[in-house]
Specification:
Blueprint: E1 4-8, E2 17-22, E3 33-35, H1 37-44, E4 48-53, E5 58-61, H2 70-80, E6 92-96, E7 107-111, H3 112-124, E8 131-134, E9 146-151, E10 154-158, E11 165-168, H4 172-178, E12 201-206, H5 208-220, E13 227-232, H6 237-243, H7 264-314, H8 323-336, H9 341-357, E14 362-369, E15 372-379, H10 382-394, E16 397-407, E17 410-419
Parallel strand pairs: 1-4, 4-8, 9-12, 12-13
Antiparallel strand pairs: 1-2, 2-3, 5-7, 6-7, 9-10, 10-11, 14-15, 15-17, 16-17
Length: 426
């Protein structure tokens, strides 16, 4: 089963890295671990590595961009965000996501030196990430509620249908006010008697360690929310974020000059066994298909031989050239002769019943034209031929013995079976 190593880089001031192995659905395969990057590097050798970086060092935005893609779009991004940037654009990296149906394009901005520092630290441990996302990018979008994630002094906020953002501020009440989640008690009332903004319904995700010191503050702010639910992250935030990785529409910072380069030699070594097995299966499939084709050709030749034998028996006067096509041509003429093929089939049905009742009679050859069936038959005696004529007559047809001659086994005769009222022909 393909595995992903989800690795979270510590924020400034923290030392230890967290990581977790997950499957394609985002479910944990191993327990969350914490420690130096060298320990995580062991798992990184056999898994895809996705890194979560602290959002306090990344700007997430969703500007309206002009139509275009590639280099043209990349050049336009800094100008679309210039009012939100405080650093020189030459010192920043701009990563661009997929344009949304609303026309806006998600963008992630990070300092070039910060991104280079992360990559250098990972490379020193032997880790090559496939993607680097802002950690708050995995905060789920809830269409009916505002999602809050409190971790130490950082408050992440995601309203329905918007990008997440983070506020690093204490106390909690001030952070909530700055984030616009609760109204500012010191703000002046709306002018013109306008109704104040409705209170928000929110879900707060927090570890037990971070909840204890702020519980009283949130309980005191309960009347500032339409509703507030608290979800304790007993295993920490990483497993919670991991569950939302498959559905997340996060922007990968590894673009442009930082796009991941592939070590094809290492990849081939990793997938060599699987590739050899796949090659073996392909060879076996081709061999089986070739065997089936050989068998089909052999059966086709056998059928052609049977067709030739039947053709020679039923049409002894015709030269054998291509028995399959000659037989198809003769049957086609039979279908289109007279009023319709039903007369031919009716005659065969009646003759079959008569011959079954007279088992000592053998039909050596037959042909059909103009609603008449001419056949060469062998019988032990003339009485048997007369019995066959009577049996055919009971089926509503006429049977006439046109000629006969004695042979060693009895009598050989030419007979004609036709519909009543049809004139006999020679």
């Amino acid at each position: 089963m393909p595995q992903t190593l989800l690795l979270r880089i510590p924020a400034p001031g923290q030392d230890e890295t967290e990581w977790l192995s997950i499957d394609e659905a985002g479910s944990a395969i191993t327990a969350k671990q914490r420690g130096p990057l060298s320990l995580a590097a062991v798992l990184a050798r056999t898994a895809k590595v996705v890194v979560l970086a602290p959002a306090t060092q990344i700007l997430l935005a969703e500007p309206e961009m002009p139509p275009g893609s590639g280099v043209k779009l990349a050049r336009a991004v800094p100008f679309a965000l210039e009012e939100q940037l405080t650093e020189d654009i030459d010192e920043l990296c701009f990563a661009i996501g997929h344009r949304r149906s609303s026309g806006r394009t998600p963008v992630a901005v990070v300092s070039r030196s910060v991104l280079q520092g992360w990559l250098a630290e990972l490379a020193a441990a032997g880790i090559e990430p496939a993607a680097i996302y802002a950690d708050i990018s995995l905060v789920p979008d809830n269409p009916g509620q505002t999602i809050l994630w409190l971790e130490k002094s950082r408050l992440a906020v995601r309203r329905p249908g918007t990008l997440p953002f983070a506020v690093e501020l204490t106390p909690v009440a001030e952070a909530l006010v700055v984030a616009g989640v609760i109204p500012d008690a010191l703000a002046e009332p709306p002018e013109g008697g306008a109704e104040p903004a409705p209170l928000e319904s929110a879900v707060l995700y927090v570890t037990r360690e971070d909840w204890v010191p702020v519980q009283a503050e949130f309980e005191g702010l309960a009347d500032k929310f339409a509703s507030l639910k608290v979800q304790i992250l007993t295993e920490g935030p990483l497993p919670w974020l991991a569950r939302h990785l498959p559905a997340a529409d996060a922007v990968n910072l590894l673009q442009g000059e930082f796009a991941r380069t592939t070590d094809y030699g290492a990849r081939w070594h990793r997938w060599r066994t699987a590739a050899l097995l796949a090659g073996g299966l392909l060879v076996a499939h081709v061999a089986a298909a070739a065997l089936k084709i050989h068998q089909a050709n052999h059966e086709s030749k056998a059928l052609d031989g049977q067709i030739a034998q039947i053709f020679s028996q039923t049409m002894p006067t015709e030269t054998l050239q291509n028995p399959r096509r000659q037989m198809e041509s003769r049957l086609d003429r039979i279908r289109h002769s007279g009023p319709g093929p039903q007369y031919f089939l009716r005659t065969l049905e009646a003759l079959s019943g008569a011959v079954s009742a007279a088992p000592k009679i053998t039909i050596d050859a037959l042909s059909y034209r103009e609603q008449s069936l001419d056949m060469k038959v062998s019988a032990p005696n003339l009485a048997a031929l007369s019995q066959l004529s009577q049996l055919v007559a009971k089926q509503g047809l006429e049977a006439e013995i046109q000629s006969s001659k004695p042979v060693d086994t009895g009598v050989e005769a030419q007979m004609q079976v036709r519909s009543q009222g049809v004139k006999a022909h020679r």
